[in-house]
Design goal:
With 162 residues, the chain is α+β, with helices and mostly antiparallel strands. The chain has two domains: 42 residues, Winged helix-like DNA-binding domain superfamily/Winged helix DNA-binding domain (Arc Repressor Mutant, subunit A, Orthogonal Bundle); 78 residues, Alpha-Beta Plaits. Helix content is 33%, strand content 22%. The protein has five helices and six strands; from the N terminus they run E-H-H-H-E-E-H-E-E-H-E. The strands form two sheets. A four-stranded antiparallel sheet has the order 4-5-3-6. The longest helix is centred in the first third of the chain and has 13 residues.
Amino acid sequence: MAVMTDRKPVHPRAQSLDDTAKRIIELLQDDGRLSYSAIAKDVGLSEAAVRHRVQKLIESGVMQVVAVTDPLQMGFARQAMIGIKVSGNIREVAAELATMHQLDYIVVTTGRFDILAEIVAESDDELLDIISTQVSALDRVVSTETFVYLRLEKQTYAWGVR
């Protein structure tokens, strides 16, 4: 399991977290299966207090606890990043893309592309279909460029807390 921050729209100011909340997040980033009692020993709180703090962190969108899987072992043969150029309102296009369940990561960016979207597909045919009939078909999408993943070299969610 991994602890990831919620990738919903970023608020202009980061939520103020106390040292205990930060330590809880660090511990869960290291081991998402760590027991409440083990966390409690480390941070000096009761197990119930830790359970409550973790629930508040999840409910507020500061973090989520998820199982990170290997798409290849889950039956998905293809992963890719799609660079998308947009004319008009980039946020509206990003919101439309966010409704597509096949896209698991969408970020508005600067540079050559306005939006980057990650896709996990069962086959090359599915990848082609989603890009051509769904992503490229959006009115304000000017062009796309697809970067097919050949091998995942590193994936981590333990970037710590500030």
